[in-house]
């Protein structure tokens, strides 16, 4: 897996590079400013981009906006946002770019190396990886459509957004897989996602509530 890292904290950037290379992945570029991301993506054609949100010179949302632009120019480019902050407006715009290959993890909530690597691989493979806190904040921002779902359905949706399958959701909620299947079916119905929809309904269900 070829990776481009956008991270201005040198220690963290080098730590990510070491982690990835020792795990058998190729780090094609490590960038300390957002303005070089588009050129790096064109040059290296990465399998996934890891991007912080706040980057020089303004330390506001330069990293996330650069990732959005890279994904706009190269549709489907997998992007994993790895930050201390939830930037709600631009995060929603990132998910607007398509239903595959997006993730958003919070640095201080990733407890295990394996958890991070698993999330990165899932995003690179076209899946999603969402921190529950990110899901919570973005769903709250979409309060009106969220009101269509029951509390239990919202819980299922949040776990779907983390990238969990039906078995894992059932274990987390201590219910049967059949119950999870019924909840997901009702979520699809309330979001008007047709049964013949070929666009990965699980991901689209999450993205609908994140502004897609």
Q: Could you tell me the number of beta strands?
A: 6
Class by alpha and beta content:
alpha/beta
Return the average pLDDT rounded to an integer: 86
Q: Give the topology string: H per helix, E per strand.
A: EHEHEHEHEHEHHHHHH
> What coarse outline follows from CA principal-axis ratios?
globular
Count of discrete structural domains: 2
What does this entry show, briefly?
The chain is an alpha/beta fold and 212 residues long.
Description of the molecule:
The protein is an alpha/beta fold. The chain has two domains: 1-132, Response regulator (Rossmann fold, 3-Layer(aba) Sandwich), CATH 3.40.50.2300; 142-212, Winged helix-like DNA-binding domain superfamily/Winged helix DNA-binding domain (Arc Repressor Mutant, subunit A). Helix content is 52%, strand content 13%. The protein has helices at residues 10-22, 37-44, 62-73, 88-96, 113-124, 132-141, 143-146, 151-161, 166-173, 177-190, 201-209, and strands at 2-6, 26-31, 48-51, 79-83, 102-106, 128-130. The longest helix has 14 residues, at 177-190.
Annotate the secondary structure layout.
Layout: E1 2-6, H1 10-22, E2 26-31, H2 37-44, E3 48-51, H3 62-73, E4 79-83, H4 88-96, E5 102-106, H5 113-124, E6 128-130, H6 132-141, H7 143-146, H8 151-161, H9 166-173, H10 177-190, H11 201-209
Parallel strand pairs: 1-2, 1-3, 3-4, 4-5, 5-6
Helix pairs in contact: 3-4, 8-10, 8-11, 9-10
